[in-house]
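User: Hey, my collaborator sent me this sequence without any context and asked if I could get a structure. I don't really work with proteins. Can you help?
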Amino acid sequence: MRALAEAALARYDLPASSKLTMINHTENVTYAVDPPSLARRYMRVHRTGYHTVRAVESEIAWARAVREDLSIVTPEAIPGADGKLVQIVDNPGMDEARRVVLFRKVEGRRVSEERDMVTPFRRLGATAAQLHAHTLTWQPPAWFERFSWDFEHTLGEASHWGPYAEAPGLSTADLELLAQAVERIRTRLETYGKAPERFGLVHADLRLDNFLVKGTGTHVLDFDDCGFAWHLHDFGAAVTMLEDRPDVPALAQAWLDGYRTVGTLDRGDLDMVASFVMMRRLTSAGWIASHTDSPLAQALGVPYSQTTVRLAHDYLADRYLADLK
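Assistant: No problem. I've predicted the 3D structure and written it out in structure-token form, which is a compact way to encode the shape of the chain:
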């Protein structure tokens, strides 16, 4: 992988002595690129079998439109020497050529580990509403291509992240309970519908880890999962791995209050919040099931499944996020 990244580096107008440091390897591989006497860049080496070149170009197109149309800073892709934003790089020993994108560094302060997360969640909700409003008016190019996070591609047979039922440590009784939760989600989604004010292009991973602040400015990172989904999918993403925290009702209310400073939500939206949290939780269980070689998946393991079952109990009993306003 490092040899491939070094080969990719040669595609850009950067010194050959630029330092490459791997900083993340979960799905994609991300390297910090430090050229002598120049600002840091970030190189993303894409996983195989997830996005086409056109889909990656579409991600870059939306992020650029957000940066140009809104007061939100997004990662800016840097073209290679050939002018292309997506480089196709092969290297001996790799299973296939990889798609590589180089980004300028986005400045800002992470808020994901602050003691008081209510204020950041309110700001996160407002940002989500800004993005959703943007997609209602933005005209994507004719070639625009992003996949969907609808029911079939989250909890159905065509799930992008894998089958939740194969998560570790689930008993037969657990699977029966989770199946009940999934059926409730499915029927509620059918009733909720896909009107434009509820369903469209979303970031799909708008968590505090992908959210920076600088003064009053808002910076949003990592559009890699952006696609077509219900707008409230972005709240389910916001509380990923936080779903069982005792302050989740307060965080949810803060997100919703922030959202309403920009957009609108009706009672039908509020009644669906718990369903979107469970939908994301179960989708993430599918990710764990399909990534048994990942250190993160191994660390989450059975305890994650056990907590998911407990949350499903509360969801089916209408005790989970039931008093939102």
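In plain terms: The chain has two domains: 2-106, 110-316. You can pass these tokens on to your collaborator as they are.
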